[in-house]
Amino acid sequence: MMVTVRRRGLVWTLAGAAVIAVVVMATGSDGGADGDVHQLAATSTSTTTSSLPQPGVTGSSQSPSPSTTTTTLAPTTTTVTVPPETTTTTVTMTTASGYTWIPKPAPGPATVAPGGALTKHLAADIAAAFGFDTIEVEEAIAAVELPPEALGNPEGWLAPGTYDVAEGASASDVVQAMVDRQVARLAERNIPQDQWYRVLTAASVIEKETYNQNEKPMVARVLVNRLAGGGPLQMDSIILYPVPEDRIFTTSEERASDQPYNSYRHNGLPPTPICAPDEASLDAFLAPPPGDWWFYVTIDLHSGETRFAITYDQHLANVELLRAWLADNPTR
After folding, report:
1. How many whole angstroms separate alpha carbon 237 and alpha carbon 204?
2. How large is the greatest C-alpha to C-alpha distance in the chain, in angstroms?
């Protein structure tokens, strides 16, 4: 699918095969590890369905090696069906035979926007990768031309990946190419354009909730199951998005706050993407495996090993494993 970008007037048209800005050639795989691991707290298993919030609106009640993960793109002659908002599952959980660690690709000299990176952290990454001044990159991000679906917010739209920058390319060229690549990825998967924002937001939650590529599909299934339930997602990574410092766990005050990213009080997806998702996160949301998982918890914050559960009792048993690990490995 070709993405032709007419920047005057911000008109985005789609036809043919994806083309990235000529000043930057996209190569290689997506960016490096996020490092955050978040516990998914308990919630009701209600199957009540409700509409997801529209883009920008929240509900009212409420050293690592390159990844070997591969993803399958949607056929070019079909349109991807975004996971419906009322899907429920009845498949019995399967137990994994062992834990497989597949890390996110590591950042390198030409690899920028590691999966899970926030826009506020990207200027320094891009400047370091290509020798730009950080302030120059910040200005480029502030001025980058986005599709209308972004609602003027670059969060999530600067695609992780490796970029081969042509001689003489400016910071603006690189930043624009990152947006162009994210648009191309959405277009290549034949996602309806009015669903770009929702898919990108959901993929950003999957990205931020994992740092093992192998677990993204199962995390996506939990997300889809909870969205189908219509209630709050109760995911710490969403609450922590506006928090200035990097940390793993939320406080009781944060979980009780009225801030718009409080996933314990507001239903459905957050009002914006919460990081830059990679392709594996996009594909996980578009095609999650069948399963009834409603809970998960990372039981080893060093390896990232995560246990998934269908029932609350199963989840509580897994939480005890995390508490035991924390007793031996104090952390924030």
Report:
1. 10
2. 59
Q: Which residues contact 222 (CB under 8 A, 6 or more apart)?
A: 40, 293, 294, 295, 296, 308
Read off the tokens for 118: 């926030």
Rounded distance between C-alpha atoms, residue 201 and residue 55, angstroms: 9
Report the run of H or E that residue 4 belongs to, with start and end: strand 3-6
Q: For the chain, what are the domain ranges? A: 1-34+104-188, 35-102+210-332
How high does pLDDT run on average in the chain?
Answer: 74
Give the mean model confidence (pLDDT) for residues 254-278: 94
Length reported for the chain: 332
Q: Which residues pair with 14 in a beta bridge?
A: 3
CA distances from 173 to 139, 144, 201, 220 (A): 12, 9, 25, 33
**Range of lowest pLDDT (7-11, 138-142, 223-227, 311-315):** 7-11
Distances (CA, A) of 180 to 3, 159, 192, 253: 8, 8, 17, 39
- Please give the pLDDT value at position 133: 93
Residue that the structure tokens 């699918």 belong to? 1
